[in-house]
Hints:
The structure is a homotrimer of 396-residue chains. With 396 residues, chain A is of the alpha/beta class. The first copy, chain A, has one domain (8-27, 88-393): TIM Barrel (Alpha-Beta Barrel), CATH 3.20.20.140. Chain A has helices spanning 8-15, 33-39, 57-66, 78-88, 90-100, 122-125, 135-142, 152-162, 166-181, 191-194, 206-217, 227-244, 270-276, 292-301, 312-316, 320-327, 346-369, 375-394; strands at residues 18-24, 103-109, 145-151, 186-189, 248-252, 283-287, 305-307. Chain A has a seven-stranded parallel beta sheet with strand order 1-2-3-4-5-6-7, sandwiched between helices. Chains in contact: A-B, A-C, B-C. At the B-C interface, α3 and α16 of B face α13, α14 and α18 of C. Chains A, B, C: It comes from Nonomuraea jabiensis. Chains A, B, C: GO terms for molecular function: hydrolase activity. Chains A, B, C: It holds the Pfam family Amidohydro_2. Chains A, B, C: Residues 170-396 form the Amidohydrolase-related domain.
Amino acid sequence: xxxxxxxxxxxxxxxxxxxxxxxxxxxxxxxxxxxxxxxxxxxxxxxxxxxxxxxxxxxxxxxxxxxxxxxxxxxxxxxxxxxxxxxxxxxxxxxxxxxxxxxxxxxxxxxxxxxxxxxxxxxxxxxxxxxxxxxxxxxxxxxxxxxxxxxxxxxxxxxxxxxxxxxxxxxxxxxxxxxxxxxxxxxxxxxxxxxxxxxxxxxxxxxxxxxxxxxxxxxxxxxxxxxxxxxxxxxxxxxxxxxxxxxxxxxxxxxxxxxxxxxxxxxxxxxxxxxxxxxxxxxxxxxxxxxxxxxxxxxxxxxxxxxxxxxxxxxxxxxxxxxxxxxxxxxxxxxxxxxxxxxxxxxxxxxxxxxxxxxxxxxxxxxxxxxxxxxxxxxxxxxxxxxxxxxxxxxx
Amino acid sequence: xxxxxxxxxxxxxxxxxxxxxxxxxxxxxxxxxxxxxxxxxxxxxxxxxxxxxxxxxxxxxxxxxxxxxxxxxxxxxxxxxxxxxxxxxxxxxxxxxxxxxxxxxxxxxxxxxxxxxxxxxxxxxxxxxxxxxxxxxxxxxxxxxxxxxxxxxxxxxxxxxxxxxxxxxxxxxxxxxxxxxxxxxxxxxxxxxxxxxxxxxxxxxxxxxxxxxxxxxxxxxxxxxxxxxxxxxxxxxxxxxxxxxxxxxxxxxxxxxxxxxxxxxxxxxxxxxxxxxxxxxxxxxxxxxxxxxxxxxxxxxxxxxxxxxxxxxxxxxxxxxxxxxxxxxxxxxxxxxxxxxxxxxxxxxxxxxxxxxxxxxxxxxxxxxxxxxxxxxxxxxxxxxxxxxxxxxxxx
Amino acid sequence: xxxxxxxxxxxxxxxxxxxxxxxxxxxxxxxxxxxxxxxxxxxxxxxxxxxxxxxxxxxxxxxxxxxxxxxxxxxxxxxxxxxxxxxxxxxxxxxxxxxxxxxxxxxxxxxxxxxxxxxxxxxxxxxxxxxxxxxxxxxxxxxxxxxxxxxxxxxxxxxxxxxxxxxxxxxxxxxxxxxxxxxxxxxxxxxxxxxxxxxxxxxxxxxxxxxxxxxxxxxxxxxxxxxxxxxxxxxxxxxxxxxxxxxxxxxxxxxxxxxxxxxxxxxxxxxxxxxxxxxxxxxxxxxxxxxxxxxxxxxxxxxxxxxxxxxxxxxxxxxxxxxxxxxxxxxxxxxxxxxxxxxxxxxxxxxxxxxxxxxxxxxxxxxxxxxxxxxxxxxxxxxxxxxxxxxxxxxx
Lengths: 396, 396, 396
């Protein structure tokens, strides 16, 4: 699905194996149609009576592009697709789709689904105990290497549930971050979904943290929404990341279910990014849509800020080329990464990779046709975005 | 003006009669050039000396597409267009343009022009007593059915002018909403223009409402900008809508003259939408531009949220295809509606329908050419957006 | 690089000399590669180890389009480009690039670089004493007329450093604005970068200004970030502008290094613009990206608001056509201006003009091909945007 007249070197660069620097484990069990529909929609509710979540860009793309990998015709009806999926069984479906994505390494956020950005809706809470592939399994199914990303809010919850006193909580957060970061390639925060990105960028005082921790420990099962504790957690993570040379990923933009969308605009991280610049910890902005232009701007002005549009590509599907084009308006090419944002079902991984290649291919094709770029630059930059930049930032 | 190579079924679906689920009555009288210019601009002021409101996307589109319906050449000069309009007379012009839109049913916001979203500018206040076609007349001129939408802020003003005491005001708002909703197909709020969409989503307490109503009754001729009373009115409307199974339309984005534009971003309705989800009242986001991506996102995650770009299409005119493309990035196809947003002159209705068909046709054509969608899906979805979804939501 | 099938009159209109209504002086001295890289990036920091600021849209465009003017092949490597630049010497390079832009008049913001929108980052402070071409020199090098724009925050700093008392400060601001405006064609404010555009639109009271001035005079070397003094300065500038019939330019959107990006959204000037409408002082929104749609909206509803996307074109480079297309969605054609936003190196001037012509040419070409516009309108409007509107607004 690449433009037909791309030079061979550019085509090869686009088709080369990708580093998927941010994904989640997918469901290991067979899925009913109702379950599958919930997993291809971002909201956690069934479609209204008489409608289906297949009638959305991602749903049409599943029928178009994933169906052939399950030996079905393109545009196959939803019922046929779901039933063929069951017939083949989840392991075989996952293998075909993950391997089909052409990924050489998965970096996997291993937090349980109940800690997903959408973890505050009742519908999502019911998914809390479901079974997702581990990082190792994601790699094995996809014929790829696999590494772990540590979700810092998951660590916090484990600590909050165990700490008898605020001072234990503080020690616990630091110790657990250090311990778990030791076997990870990066840290990740979902503060955008839990609070918003308009938090006070300064490190909170110890006194404020103790006071907030005391409140927190009274009911540690609640999702963490306290701004002071979220900032404390984030700054503690920054300390660990600096020490170990790890990047910190920020979920930004759509795909969570917390505050109003404008509060997840990554542009609101400007002052925080400036404050972090001396530390040299890479900040990686995930998803970003519909604020990907703002994210690209931050990546352009801050040497330690990186950007990708992740989950926006499988979700915008047939319209994803424009999203990539808008990202390319301002982002430096050494700051762009690929991720599928894969979530719930392996279809999102396959489609993430497919639309990434298609959209970047279209962007490069039009620049070559207009004489704006040379083929050598196009091939070089496709390699950088597809894997080179991730290898450098994550030290793979 | 559809792509030449569209399959016949898709072409037929695009050309099928539309349900225009949100429009206003148009002027019934002949218009001078100065009056016509004011009505094709969104701001309420004459163009600066030496310039003309015809030199804007909508103005060029009027000369291009409406001129032939008045027996003129495309691209006819403004003076010729306005003089031919007078020659034919407003009734004939309205008939040609409204019938030319190919609409099978108009849902008409029947508030007087002085209650338009732009009702706070002095220029607009001067239009307060002008004569607009009623819903019935809109239907008759356009050869279509017609139903009414109730502007809740108009009801409030009528009640405020008549209520001696705050308690009468409270009773009156509830009673009048109930009475007028009985013969309407939907309710509509312009809270975005009067206050902004960043209101506190919670229902205000009775005490707060009484206090605010007392202030209000001291000067009921003023436009309603009190946040507490606006919320009270909105929640009262939600109660009535729930009882009668009616949707509630929200004016969002450009096209009003109240608060700064970012405060009309429909993304700011996220918490309110979540709060309303159990009630099941459909929320319909109108216009949305330039925040249509945010609106499409809300429509994707909330089962009761719907979206259309209304007035954005005639106003962006030759550039409207990209607006529709951006809307299609994330919005479920069963959540998209067509409206012309028709306002002031029938040209906006005709152009709204024309650019809707043209833009959706281009979007479908490119998906078919890329093999992304099947023709059967394209035709089915065109029917859904053009009329099917509206018939379902408004129970037409 | 214009579409091949444009009618001759439209082509001529696009290639006609431009009025560049907003640019800065460029460096007069030879630049090392490190210096050159800093000047083609917006952030003021070197690219991370192993990367280069040439790997960004603007950097690729320099190699593609500026190289031939220095007798090099398109797509020449960065090292070759920088070394050829040194070989020719800065005066010759500046002459070729500025003359190559095809500009008939430069309006030049003559504030020293340390007063640039980015003046708060340490990296930029180090450029404080560098040598930039004056307005006269810009004109001479570019074979064009040249006029001055007065940066009001520079005047304030000069006054603050000299005023013994708050009352002298107040008098000084008014007197200096009047004196310097006497030989300028416009005023310019960078309040977006110093504070944000979400300032209180009302004129501050004299008492508040005196109090703030007393604080200011204690440390006048600091950049001005006090909201009250910035508003006082702005309203004082408005007074002078009204008296002398001068427009006031606002830096908006990307390109500064002050508050978070969303606070530079020109849409936030809505209430201020409404307040200024009776005064009739033209407000000109510069750059605007990624909020150019919001800026176009303001230009549509306020008779005294103008817009251009300046620096966004050289920075988005190969992707600039979409930015211009989005600007054309709503902006009246008599409200659009051209500027290169030229900054630091003459390449930005040359590329600003090149991409402006290319992007507008593409937009006009597609409207002509679709039959949306007539060739006569296209040519007329190209003349208006390229120079006519600027001549009218600045009374050139």
